[in-house]
Each structure stands twice: as structure tokens, then as C-alpha cells.
Amino acid sequence: MAFIPPLPADANPDVAELAAFFNETLGFCPNSVLTMSHRPAIAKAFIQLNMAVMANQGRVTSALKRLIAYVSSNATGCRYCQAHTIRAAERYGAAEEQLENIWAFRSHPAFSAAERAALELSLAASQVPNAVDEAIQTEMKKHWDDGEIVEMMGVIALFGYLNRWNDSMATTLEEGAIDSATALLACDNWTVGKHQ
Questions:
Q1: Is the dihedral of CA 143, 147, 150, 156 positive or negative?
Q2: Where does residue 196 rank: exposed (0-12), middle (13-18), buried (19+ CB within 10 A)?
Q3: d(CA 192, CA 22)
Q4: Given CB 3.0 to 4.6 Å as the disulfide criterion, which of 29, 49, 106, 149 pairs with 19?
Q5: DSSP labels for the chain?
Q6: pTM of the entire predicted model
Q7: Cis before 8 (ω within 30)
Q8: CA-CA distances (angstroms) from residue 33 to 40, 44, 58, 76, 82?
Q9: Are 159 and 77 in contact (CB under 8 A)?
Q10: Residue 176 has pLDDT above 90, yes or no
Q11: Which percentage of the chain shows pLDDT scores above 90?
Q12: Cα 118 from Cα 65, distance rounded (Å)
């Protein structure tokens, strides 16, 4: 059960206008944003940060950003964000073979060396204590430029915020996210958990 209930989607017109961004990403406004709407300035700042982080600047695709977010959310254990990120990865065109083999990214042929480096960074950066070391940094610089690394770290840091927010708030999962997670994460024994 949610710690703090989400407000109705139309509770704050300014937030609702910005939150339309999520209709493309997820097909609905997330309950996390509707909970942040208790303090509209937080909701608006979060949405703007999300839009900036998820904007495509070049080679870091929307699908890869969502896979990075999924790996990060899985590392922290947030089932709410796992459901959202796997849904968004699917909606943004991540290859089915990648979705099915995300935890074999280190060796599965569906992943390029550059994608492997990015997902390794996501996993290491999402751990406590942080596990990003010189070897991970060196591998990243073989495949990605400084701006691309900043983009990826933006995704990882954004989901660090969301993972803590949603797991602490026990944010209620939306039906669409539950459907995607149930279909795509069955082999990972995914459950809704406290996000009912």
C-alpha cells in the first residue's frame, strides 16, 4: 500500500501539462509523479530533469537509455522502476533478444561491446558502495565520448532518485506497467511486491 497516495492527474494544471511527456514514454502518467504533485515544484522539476536526461543527443538511443535504467533499477531492487523501465525499453524499440537476455549482456551476441560497457557502468554505478572503477571507466572511453557518458550517468543518477522514491513510497504500480513486467520479466521471477 502506498505510503502517500497519488493526487488525481488534474490536481495541478502545470504538472498535468508537463506530465503529458509520459504518455509517449509509458502510455500514462506515473503514480510517482502524481505523488510528487503534493509539492508541484518537485513534480515539475523532476519532469523537466527527466525530459532533459532522456532527450536523444546522438548515439545513446532511447532503447539503450531504458535498458541502462532497467539494469540500474534491478540492481537497487525497485520493482516499480523495473516495471516502468522494461515497458519503456520495449516501447522505444529495444530488440526482443536484448529484452530476453538482459542479464547475459556480458556475453550474449545481441549486445555490442559499447552496449556491454554501458550496462556494466549502470550496474556498477547503482551499487552501494559504488563499484565504478578505472577498468570500467577505461572500457567506457573506448566506446563513448564524454557527452555520451554524461548522458548515461544522467540516466543512472535519475533512476537512483526514482528507485529510492518509489521503493520508499511503495508507489502503486499502474496496470500497463504490471502487464509489461509480467510478460517481459517472468523468467526473473518479478512480482509486484509492495507496489500493489
A1: negative
A2: exposed
A3: 21
A4: 29
A5: --SSPPPPTTS-HHHHHHHTHHHHHTSS--HHHHHHTTSHHHHHHHHHHHHHHHS--SSS-HHHHHHHHHHHHHHHT-HHHHHHHHHHHHHTT--HHHHHTGGGTTT-TTS-HHHHHHHHHHHHHTSSS----HHHHHHHHHH--HHHHHHHHHHHHHHHHHHHHHHHHTPPPPHHHHHHHHHHSGGGT---TT--
A6: 0.96
A7: no
A8: 9, 9, 27, 20, 16
A9: no
A10: yes
A11: 91
A12: 9
Q: Which three cell numbers stand for residue 186?
A: 517472468
Average pLDDT over residues 41-54: 96
For all residues of the chain together, what is the average pLDDT? Answer: 96
Q: Convert the pLDDT of each residue in 95-142 to its tens digit.
A: 999 999 999 999 999 999 999 999 999 999 999 999 999 999 999 999
In angstroms, the CA 3 to CA 145 distance is 41
C-alpha cell at 105: 549482456
C-alpha cell recorded at residue 110:
545481441
185 vs 191: CA distance, rounded Å: 9
Per-residue pLDDT band for 189 (boundaries 50, 70, 90) equals confident
The CA distance from 196 to 68, in Å, is 25
